[in-house]
Amino acid sequence: MVVVVDGSPLTIQEVVAVAHRTASVEIGNDLASRMEPARALVERIIADEDVAYGITTGFGALSYTRIPIEQASELQYDLVRSHASGVGDLLGRPAIRAMLLLRARTLAQGHSGVRPAVVERLIEFLRRDLLPAVPDRGSVGASGDLAPFAHLALPLIGEGFFLVDGARVAAADVLEAEGLDPIELRPKEGLSLLNGTEGMLAQGCLAVHAARLLADAADGACALSVEALMGSSRPFQARVHQLRPHPGQIHSADVIARLLDGSSIGASHRDDFSHRVQDAYSLRCAPQVHGSVRDTIDHAAIVFERELGSVVDNPIIFADDGDVISAGNFHGQPLAIALDFLAIAVTELGSISERRTDRILDPERSYGLSPFLATRPGVDSGYMLAQYTAAALVAENRVLSHPASVESIPTSGSQEDHVSMGWGAAMKLRDVLRNTANVIAVELVCAAQGCEQRAPLEPAPGTAAILAAVRSVVPPLVADRPVGTDIEVTAQLIEDGGIGAAMARRE
Prior knowledge:
Blueprint: E1 2-5, H1 12-19, E2 24-27, H2 31-48, H3 72-83, E3 87-90, H4 93-108, H5 116-128, E4 135-137, H6 146-153, E5 161-164, E6 167-170, H7 171-178, H8 189-194, H9 198-228, H10 238-242, H11 247-260, H12 264-267, H13 281-284, H14 286-307, E7 316-318, E8 323-325, H15 333-361, H16 384-400, H17 422-452, H18 461-471, H19 484-495, H20 498-506
Parallel strand pairs: 1-2
Antiparallel strand pairs: 3-4, 5-6, 7-8
Helix pairs in contact: 1-4, 1-9, 3-6, 4-5, 4-9, 9-11, 9-14, 9-15, 9-17, 9-18, 11-14, 14-15, 15-16, 15-17, 16-17, 17-18, 17-19, 18-20
């Protein structure tokens, strides 16, 4: 895949591909002609000494301060330096790559007034995988993600740090080694490198991708749990869900039904209604819960893809009629709410998954499985503590699901008196996604062990494929061992798409 940066809208798929280095990046042929009119207008403002926010004035609460023309470029350097106030852990490489791509796309639209050289350097960083070191705390989603983007911008001018082998390395040293000179910031360029929502948007695009993998894995884990618990496939029949036509619900029910088709475990009790008339909610209501999550993911994707075609700079340059308008397209509220909504939804995937795990491990409710799936119950504890881990992560997710988007705190002398907290929403969501991957991993590991205890009865081809995928990274539990590794490698399998791939092969 080749992703072309020419100011046109991008897709979530393209962002994810660039973030994970499965796509290359090229600059569109008409980039210069698209950007030149707005740049010419900025130059004219400077020459005429007109008043324009961030070009000939200070920033935020200092916007009433007139800046002498001879200091207009210095203003841009000071802005980048002063706004690099982030703290905390460093963002991962995919997030930084996504931010570089999205910032380049925004500037390439021709409404920011920067030179093509700025976009070209951002793309060059991507091509060489030169990634600025960006701390993950410090943005309130006000004029966009100011602090993170200041750290992203510093290496452009030979300052700040690059992320090299997980450590900070002085940008000046890296640029010298790469044979690159720092760029010189012209009026408006520092501001345009900082203003906008692309930080939280980058996180959102990656989150949608990760959430879809989790939703697939949750459907697969549920099907495997139905096998392990000798549950019924009847609740997943298409005719049931056509009577309540939520798209996600229909999708999840269809997936689970296909995975269970052909199971000798299911056939062993299919017509025995004395076995169990109704399964627990965590089994038979899985399509309704998982499907709601899928619908929420789709909603978030619509919001994010709309943003992937938006102009989010400030001020916005309208070169056609010479207008420079200070407005609020940088405000992150649309994204913040979607990010919070997505965190709530993904939390529910983990919540219902943990309930299925608990049933598998409880000898009173597991229909003949060994207590905690131990080979020698009492001597061995089996996967008892794995459920503790899942419960702890579900509880943490419920705390993290409190919306950040309602927690506005005024900044910049109350010039920015309502902020989105979208970056905080993105950071919370990142943690919720990782926690949920581990929760579903616990279910997969336990369901696989439980399914094997039903031998000589065999699972369906679809669930057998999931079982095989789990066994490719986790051996059967014969005797007690540290199970944290079992959980972690299975979670990684989920995040890498391994469970979804196994399901796709055998549905």
